[in-house]
């Protein structure tokens, strides 16, 4: 029997490695820009075509490479950043494994033009699928120019599963922003299809954040500082009033490297406890600086998951530092007894001279008799008790008439049964509202408690979604148009939303620079804050992605429904409650809201009997 185990060719091994390191065009941007920064570049320019499918070009003015280094850089596990295993625990660079360039070259056409500082000539290298096609001298600028073309040309399955251009470009923006946020000392620019997206000059950290996310964020950031023997923590946290339910800007960086760390996220959330509503998230940009020997970044191919040796003490330091930052900004209320404008309270001084005190005088009417009703001075007013019951009988009669009319209301017009056990098949009893939030009524299966806000969300969602599918919706023009500014990531998804937003009733005008004027809103939403509503729609769309048109429509419908639904605490008449329940039970899905929250809670007859045993 012949042997069956053999070594894989380098080309196949590199393609397998590329599956871990190079997942999409954004991965190429991340690796090449980080390499440029490791090479000491002061200026880095990124040029993208067709969201990276056609071209990803990174131009830097770093120290460049010699001809030999240029050839060696594309070999697997070739690196200049570590020489021994101990170097893994003293890392000060972004890349170190020597897998990135080999993985990129394995699945694309790559052209490298590079020249070392002080050299007269550079090198031009062309590769396709890890195979060197051309190698020659080249008169180029100092630094490197990497041009990656036709990504995944030799792995059709990988290329087929790439998302839409909008989604892939949004991922590129995400990686670019993560690098820019931690390298304010480097000038960075990003161009997509010859259009400038970012042009970030060298600046301070706070200014870099503002340049990326807009000037409005400046007033919402609080300085975060903590210094200890274990770790130095710096950065910014958001004011509590800037927290939002989705789309919050939350970043952790350690020694200049972006990371994800749910455990440290809980520390910040605990610091905001009782300061922000449940379900809302604060903004934060937190930078950790500590001994590289106390962390391990070599546990994940993308190096975004990092293991800390002293997680628990750092957790305590982070939580305390965040609390202190919030307290200094008066985000946490406190009592200050040293206020200059305090009210002067007079103090009694018994040794003060020329002070005369007089005892208070009490005047009493000695002739007053409380039992005399005919006193000329104090005559008790007579109350006509008959007025208290005036109309009582008429009101009781009208209530009985109303109950009779409700009981006689045709059952088949009130509801449409759509539940397998027909739990809603018989409902002719009156409804009661509890604390302005719940509607209580008896059904065939028992006592039903209905959340009125969620019920209305379900009803409006079905209505808006039907309007979107039929491309119909009335628009109400606003008296004073409002201007909304989007970040680059938010603006990238707008093209997939504009048609549906217009069909449902939004009237938006593009003002350029990712700004829009809101000229009209869907009818019925005149009392809703348009800026908040539109941002909520965009944030939800970013969460669900832009691949499936139906999902985008559901996202828009849900945002509109939540904005227009009746608020908890609103008092409803019997007719309104009856109409709400009838419309809810005619919905294809009346038990849950579109985002999976319970609308109806049933208390069965058996459960009621057990409570009274």
Explain the overall architecture.
The protein has 613 residues and is an alpha+beta fold. The chain folds into three domains: 10-200, Histidine kinase-like ATPase, C-terminal domain (Heat Shock Protein 90); 205-328, Ribosomal Protein S5, domain 2, CATH 3.30.230.10; 410-613, MutL, C-terminal domain, regulatory subdomain (Ribosomal Protein S8, Chain: A, domain 1, 2-Layer Sandwich). It is built from 18 helices and 22 strands. An eight-stranded mixed sheet has the order 5-4-3-6-2-1-7-8. A five-stranded mixed sheet has the order 9-10-13-11-12. A four-stranded antiparallel sheet has the order 16-17-18-22. Helix 6 (165-182) packs antiparallel against helix 7. The radius of gyration is 35 Å and the shape is globular. The termini are far apart. The model is unreliable at 398-427 (pLDDT under 50). GO terms for molecular function: ATP binding; ATP hydrolysis activity; ATP-dependent DNA damage sensor activity; mismatched DNA binding. Keywords: DNA damage, DNA repair. One of its GO terms (biological process) is mismatch repair. Residues 209-327 form the DNA mismatch repair protein S5 domain. This is DNA mismatch repair protein MutL.
